[in-house]
Amino acid sequence: MAEYKRRVVDDELDELMPALSAIAIEGAKGVGKTATAESRCQSIFRLDDPAQRSIAEADSAVLISRKAPLLIDEWQRVPSIWDAVRRAVDQDHTPGRFLLTGSASPTTPPTHSGAGRIVTLRMRPMSLAERGVGVPSVSLAQLLRGKKPEITGETTVTLTDYVREIVQSGFPGIRTLSDKALRMQLDGYLQHIIDTDFPEQGLMVRRPEILRRWLAAYAAATATTATFETIRDAASGGQGEKPSKATTQPYREILERLWIVDPVPAWLPSRNRLHRLAQPPKHHLADPALAARILGLDAEALLAGEEPKLPVPRNGSMIGHLFESLVSLGIRVFAQAAEARVSHLRLQGGRHEVDLIVERGDQRVLAIEVKLGNTINDSDVRHLLWLREQIGDDLIDALVIHTGPYAYRRPDGIAVIPAALLGP
To answer: For residue 197, what is the DSSP state?
Structure first.
């Protein structure tokens, strides 16, 4: 087995397990949930094993009585386990008793949400910092504290390296492969969603080619707010056969339950200082490598500027949108650890937009723009300066994430940070 690489969520578990009885780690298949959890547990029960699943279905008490900490892997396959764990926590609040991992929301939800008994952590594919791409010199958590830290650092990571990371994926069991093996694993991952995960979620896909076209159209809409009508139009594949809304709505619902579709919601500030805010989410798949693969774009094609042949309107190139998706992935990993929420800002008509808004619990925000270029000019920060004028002290800090070598702070106060130098 490859050596385990510590994840950001490990820091969260280090803090929470000594205080909480039960924690659920949820996320798409292959993100590393089991590897992270199993090293922390004395007992492991794998519910994707038919023999162990039959025991859990027959008598959950046998499972619950195992030596703690107990890992219940793929808990959603026996949803009643959730309620059994909740009841066990009610009876004994001893910290660190249960870790549950799940790669899908159950088709039959538990009778109780688990609120107050089971805390849920989201796990996503590896960020650049977790992959070991560069050595971070700027901390998102420190930026969120509002102290306007000094921004310094230099990296040798180039655009070619970032593109390699886009296609290589943040799935720890896949990203170490090369060339054909990597492509076949990503193809297999996508095919497994259609052939296995959808039926397990209660939907037999009669025409897999329609689902694949819809997934490709969604991938082509990465980091845009394209309407789902636009995505359905693009999914016609030039054949004049647009899938119906009744067909694609279950696609979206199931892909969200599998955490494959991972949109960034629109920011709707409760202080209500901004008007005419658009509400559609920004589209992202769990990992930009899935988007690149289903579109047939490898590193060479992206660097050559090739574009998907799908009619999804975008401002900018596909490589730029996939780079934004890569950065967004890392920001969401770091923000969760800092107990912050991530969204995006866009005015109706697109007159002003900010790629990512990271919001603290007190509703003050960090504003982030993502730029593919290695130099940043005044036009690249105009939306950040506009937002500063609109919300004043509610803006903690503003930054541009880019592909250049240097981290620094501009005279106007905007921080400029290479993607490889931003960490948790």
So the answer is: I
Strand-pairing partners, residue 408, are 416
CA angle (296 as vertex; 129, 325 as ends), nearest 5:
30
CA angle 125, 42, 84 (to 5 degrees): 80
**pLDDT tens for residues 181-233?**
999 999 999 999 999 999 999 999 988 999 999 999 999 999 999 999 999 99
The answer to whether 402 and 371 are in contact (CB under 8 A) is yes
**Separation CA 318–CA 359 (nearest Å):** 27
* Residue 124 scores a pLDDT above 90: yes
Backbone angles phi and psi of 112, in degrees to 5: -130, 145
**What DSSP character marks residue 249?**
H
pTM higher than 0.70 for the full model? yes
Domains detected in the chain:
8-122 (3.40.50.300), 128-423 (no CATH)
Here the tokens at position 47 are 């519910």
> To 10 degrees, what angle do helices 8-16 and 318-337 make?
20
Read off the DSSP letter of residue 124. -
Residue 46 near residue 52, CB atoms below 8 Å: yes
Alpha carbon distance 298, 225 (integer Å): 24
pLDDT at residue number 110: 64
Look-up: residue for tokens 């027959």?
Answer: 58
